[in-house]
Structures are given as structure tokens and as C-alpha cells.
Amino acid sequence: MKKSLAEIAHYLGGRVSGDGETLIGGLATLDDAGEGELTFLANPRYAGKVATTRASAVLLAEGGDPHGKNAIFHANPYLAFAKLLTLFSAVPAAPLGVMPGALLAEGVKIGADVTVHPGVSIASGVVLGDRVTLHPGVVLYPGVTLGDDVTLHANVSVRERCRIGNRVTVHNGTVIGCDGFGYAPDGTGWYKIPQIGIVVIEDDVEIGANSVIDRAALEVTRIGRGTKIDNMVQIGHNCLIGEDCMIVSQAGVAGSAQLGNHVILGGQVGIAGHIKLGDNVMVGGKSGVTGNVAANQVVSGIPAIPHREWLKASGVTARLPEFKKTLSALEKRVAELENELARTAI
Fold it and tell me: Which pick of 50, 52, 74, 255 has the fewest CB atoms within 10 Å?
């Protein structure tokens, strides 16, 4: 597929500088691009590479220097390039229907243009929307509902009665709706609390590989519309995750925690149970959040504190060996002065 620079600019809502009839057949980095390809500059640190790239055109932020090359100027070149990757690389696969080797119970409802690969297991009462794709090893327990344009990659499991909305992608090995971690002390042992709720995944969510979202004890664990979850993330039972959140790899959200809209959790963040994070909260990587955080805050550290305070504390931490040496010298000097004062008093 080839498109003119003018067509691409119109698609992106940008403006052309140079020859709008230049044909673009692919995308590449500043270093690797060649003739017939479009590259982009999102980080001003690499602006010098625009002059040396062999690309036929460059996607730049407004005010950028194209160094005499054909260019498209856009307010957000990083986002624009992401949209172009979708445009140039997304090739819709023809639906294959239910293929031999898939196991379907009686009463499964199937929408139009689905693909169900061999090795898929679908229990009774499951509903599949239109254009659903289920890769080998997917297991859908009784009563699961999938909306339109859902893709479940290999070895995804969705437990009983859980609901997934439209345009949701779940990557390999993720489990949705396993039992929440709930036990009551029973003398010397632990009595398992039945987990009879469900998980609801709203529209336009993407979940990475080997993540786990626990079913609620009684009601719903909910992942809000547009939220993106990375690989190896744990979401505990009864959690309510808002819309358009970003949860990075190895983060863990304990049971009954609530995240507002557009919350960002860095890698390996831990969120304690039963606390609330307001809208637009950002939590730095490896932080531990043990209490409520108001909206529009940036926090870091263990326990998490305002990010600027954490930066100051981190600067002090790096100098602790120096401070210890100074303190020891001061303690020694004070002891000497005390001894001297004692002798003078006698």
C-alpha cells in the first residue's frame, strides 16, 4: 500500500511542507528509513538526525526544522506516527469460522465473522459477539459474554459469568475472573471465603500477557473503558479501575482498591487494599501506596509521598554515608569537649 504525503497529512490532520505527491510505502526510524519511507521525530534530542536521514519525508512537531526535506507537521508526532503504524500494518484477517478441533458446548451463541481456532474450549451459555477471534488454548467458562471485535490470544482463560465489552484485546496467558484471595481465620487454619462475584471489562481495554484479574467476592471487579494493563499485573477482587488508566508491568492492586480515571501506575507499584486514588494520579515505579491519594497528585516512594518530596529525600539518601562519617566525627569532638570541660571544672 502506498499513499501520497498529502493523503497522509489529511488522514492525520497535519500539514505538508514540500512535495505532497511524494509516495510513501512504509515507515521506519530516523536511522533506518530509506527512499519511499516516512520517519518521525518525537524527541528534540535527536533533531540532528533529521538532516542525515534518508527517508523521503519526516513527521515533525510544529516549529521543527525539516532540513529541506519533505515533511508533515503535526501537533503530536508521536501519536500521529502510532496511527500511521496502524494504517500501514493492520491487515484484517478473513474470518475462519469455528475451525475443526474447537470444543463448543450446546447453546453457545456466536455472532458474525468469528474465528475460533483449534484447541479453544467454550462452555455452555457463552455469548460471542461479531468478529471475535479466539486463539488456540482459550477457555471460556459457563456464562461468559464477549462483545464485538474481541481478540483473546493463546491460553487466555475467562471464568464463569465474566463479561468483556467491545474492542477488547487480551494477550497470552492472562486469567480473568479467578477467585479473589479471601480467607477467614479459623482457629489454626484458614476458611476460604467463596468468591461469587464477576469481572466486567469495559470497551476498548487492552490487557497484557500473564496478568490476573480476580473476580469479586460478591459484586463486580471492574476495569473501566479504555484502560491499558501491561504484562504480569495483578488486580485484586472487588477493585474498581477507572477509565483510561495505565497500569505498567508487575504492578499489584490489592482488593477493594479504587482508582479514578486516567490514573497511571509505574512498574512494580503496590496499591494497598480499600484505598482510593483520585483522577489523574501518577505513581512512580516501585512505589507503595498505603493511603488515599487526592486527584491530580504525583507520588513516589515507600510509603508514597509527593514526588518532589521523594526526590529531595532520595538526594539525602545518597549522602547518608557522608553524613554518618560527619556525625561520628562530631560525636567524637563533643565527647572530647565534654571531657575537657569536666577537667576544667575540677
Answer: 52
